[in-house]
Structures are given as structure tokens and as C-alpha cells.
Write a structure and sequence with these properties.
The chain is mostly helical and 95 residues long. It has a domain of 56 residues. α1 crosses α2. The chain is extended and about 65 Å long. The N and C termini lie far apart (61 Å).
Length: 95
């Protein structure tokens, strides 16, 4: 029986990490069996935003964008809007 052809579309890259980051990578690589498995898990989680439904991903991304904009513009000062718990709104409706 012929062998399955080897893939030639892999991406290879090397990175430098801080000692703290390297320690985390080593711990997770031990848990998953390899560093590659850990990096692939991180990428898969990132791509799916940890398996959240699309509407929640959209709301979270919009909130992150707004929070970044607010923190740059106001440097931590409250704009006077009422949202004491910082709860995100869904589909434009207040929380």
C-alpha cells in the first residue's frame, strides 16, 4: 500500500520568549505532549474565541474596541454613562 504523501504546506517559525512565557509554554507542552500541540491549541482557541457563538464574539470584539477607544480618549475618566457593572450590551440594547 502506498504511503500518504507528506505535507509541504506547514509554516515554520522561531520565536523568543521571556522566562515567564517559556515556563508557561513548557508546562502546557508537558500537559499536551508537545509545544506544537500547545501552540496549535492557542491558535484554534483564538480563531474561535474559545467556542463562543458568533453574536457573542461580535459583541466582545465591539466592546474591546470601545474600551480601547475610551481608555485612550478619557484616560480612565468616566464619561458619565450609566453602566456601573460594565456589563456588555447585546445587539445595541443596554444591559
Amino acid at each position: 500500500m502506498p504511503k500518504t504523501p507528506a505535507r509541504d504546506d506547514y509554516f515554520a517559525q522561531s520565536f523568543r520568549f521571556t522566562p515567564e512565557q517559556a515556563a508557561t509554554i513548557r508546562e502546557e507542552a508537558k500537559r499536551l505532549g508537545s509545544t506544537t500541540a500547545f501552540v496549535r491549541e492557542l491558535i484554534d482557541d483564538y480563531r474561535t474565541l474559545f467556542g463562543l457563538p458568533g453574536i457573542q464574539v461580535e459583541v466582545l470584539e465591539a466592546d474591546m474596541k470601545n474600551l480601547t477607544r475610551r481608555s485612550r480618549n478619557q484616560r480612565g475618566m468616566d464619561s458619565g454613562r450609566s453602566n456601573p457593572g460594565g456589563v456588555a450590551s447585546v445587539r445595541g440594547k443596554p444591559a
